[in-house]
Fold this protein.
Amino acid sequence: MSTANVDAILQNIGSEEYFPISYEELEQGAKQKMSAGAFGYVRSGAGGEETLRKNEDSFKKLSIVPRVLSDVAGLDTSINLFGRIYPHPLLLAPVGMLKMADEQADLAVAKAAAEHQIPVVLSTVASYSMEEVAAAAKGPKWFQLYWSNNEEVSFSMVKRAEEAGYEAIVLTVDTVMMGWRQEDMRNRFSPLKLGYGKANYETDPVFLNSLGSQDSDSIIQGILDNIHHPGLNWKHVAELKKRTSLPLLLKGILHPEDAKLAVANGIDGLIVSNHGGRQLDGVISAIDALPHVVESVNGSVPVLIDSGIRRGSDVVKALALGAAAVLIGRPFVYGLAVGGQNGVEKVLENFIQETKVSISLSGVSSIKDLPSLKIVRA
Ligand SMILES: Cc1cc2nc3c(=O)[nH]c(=O)nc-3n(C[C@H](O)[C@H](O)[C@H](O)COP(=O)(O)O)c2cc1C
């Protein structure tokens, strides 16, 4: 482990072309590559961006109290989720409309993640269809579902995901309507309207059959009509659970009572998330919500987290507070914008290495021991 770590640092130091290392540099790099509208779409949060800022600030308010002299030579970062072992406690969060960042979009991301056996969670509003992504990359893949008003479209997409080899379904529950995105209004930018998120819809027979006409404008309008689904409730969740044999997770849980209801409805896993501060502004940061959700489910299902994870020490804090794994969001999108597939690989390599260093320097040598690590507010 120690040698591998030195190698990773030297690789970065010795490489001929400088690639941004920190999140701040990645963001700046992406800003230079992307249109103002696209960059603003990725960077921004909803409302006054209170929650966007809070996500990162809350991590900074937590401190690790490390142990020393505990022999961390045999570091094991593997995790087990739904019976499958993954080498790292990391997944890639569902991010839609990635053609905004790079033409190869989800294909590039899935190939980069496959290099490390990191699961990608493909968005409903991906730029390539779930079948195209499955054909391009053989690594582990989960499918994220945005509920459709026409629920048969939801069931059809889930069936396609099963057939294409996706291994879990993630239902996003904090997006029954779009958050109040001021930056996009300012930039007059809607990637959905530009067609960046239509791939899974224009390949779905049930969706297509539901349209009066199948021209491009009708497809976009059909997506907009389906994606606004304020009626979503626990009955839909229970029905979805019946319709799939895959593990079903809910993404966007912040309240411990919702976590309990999810377990009561047979849900297999939770993702504590506030959608990266893009939905309801003013909500609790994900990392502050995590311990309460973990406590409320009492080990019955794995609890994952995203929103504000920027570096290896954030991963350590989340796992120490009871997360089974973390999802990386904006950092990989910026990596994609800066350097395509290679850029995503760079971001992941640095995340993996910094996570390993951070776990080891905390005095812990396996993920399962991380919950005993002391975290304080200081
Ligand atoms: C540009 C962008 C697009 C996103 N698209 C989706 C999506 O299609 N489905 C979804 O469930 N979450 C989506 N999210 C939310 C992410 O899955 C994740 O919750 C969020 O990025 C975590 O916050 P962070 O990036 O600040 O760490 C998106 C986030 C961004 C930044």
